[in-house]
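Researcher: I'd like a candidate sequence for this fold, 266 residues long. If you have to choose between options at a position, lean toward the conservative one.
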């Protein structure tokens, strides 16, 4: 991939998704774009760039963002956030709250919102409440995977055995064991495509807690500021924002108050 093409792809990706690709990402971008080009049987990256820009439907732009966006996740990743979710949810229940809305802002292949759902159901123990979780991502591919909710044995190994038996069922796929999410989890979660760089978002809120983890590291401060302001708007007073352990709101002016590293409250 020549420098001019790389820079134009960087520009398009930033404009359409807010993802800031540094000059040191040329080999990564080239590898991921080449994967898409092979599928389309396009051999020249300049021809691919023209294909993206000439596609009036915008579908190829979505496919480009799919291959560029990074999707690394697992069940119970950064587990202390789920411990906090359990504690505050238990407290809200004791106080009589019966309507709850949670948001996994960069839900990737679904492990995060499904872990949220397991955590909340374990607290409820059969109590009936109005509970919904929204899972959003910019990638249509990972959203399809999330809705399917099927994971191989390695990807589910961080789920405790008793919870695995309670919330998943084993299926066979080409001779290998896989685990499918039970309907008790699926019915709590709605997966939608959302570009975090383009607030205001269509959700009305208020949200009780937002997990926006390990995504702001790919955004510059201009986009981060807009996103943080929008999450503040959507959270209820006393609602929580969790960001990734390697992230913080330091340097981003906001009214959030730090609870501890990576955890903020409105």
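Model: Candidate sequence:
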């Amino acid at each position: 991939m020549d420098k001019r093409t790389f820079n134009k792809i960087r520009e398009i990706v930033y404009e359409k998704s807010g993802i800031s690709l540094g000059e040191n990402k040329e080999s990564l971008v080239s590898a991921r774009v080449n994967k898409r080009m092979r599928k389309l049987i396009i051999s020249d990256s300049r021809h691919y760039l023209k294909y993206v820009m000439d596609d009036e439907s915008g579908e190829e732009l979505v496919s480009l963002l799919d291959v560029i966006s990074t999707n690394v996740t697992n069940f119970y990743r950064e587990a202390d956030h789920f411990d906090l979710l359990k504690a505050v949810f238990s407290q809200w229940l004791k106080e009589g709250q019966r309507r709850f809305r949670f948001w996994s802002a960069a839900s990737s292949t679904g492990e995060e919102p499904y872990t949220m759902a397991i955590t909340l159901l374990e607290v409820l123990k059969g109590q009936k409440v109005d509970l919904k979780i929204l899972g959003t991502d910019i990638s249509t591919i990972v959203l399809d995977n999330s809705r399917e909710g099927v994971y191989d044995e390695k990807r589910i190994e961080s789920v405790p055995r008793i919870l695995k038996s309670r919330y998943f069922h084993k299926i066979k796929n080409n001779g290998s064991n896989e685990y499918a999410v039970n309907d008790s989890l699926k019915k709590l979660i709605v997966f939608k495509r959302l570009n975090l760089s383009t607030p205001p978002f269509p959700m009305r809120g208020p949200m009780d807690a937002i997990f926006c983890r390990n995504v702001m590291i790919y955004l510059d401060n201009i986009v981060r500021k807009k996103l943080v302001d929008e999450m503040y708007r959507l959270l209820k007073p006393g609602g929580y924002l969790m960001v990734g352990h390697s992230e913080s709101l330091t340097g981003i002016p906001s009214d959030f108050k730090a609870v501890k590293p990576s955890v903020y409250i409105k």
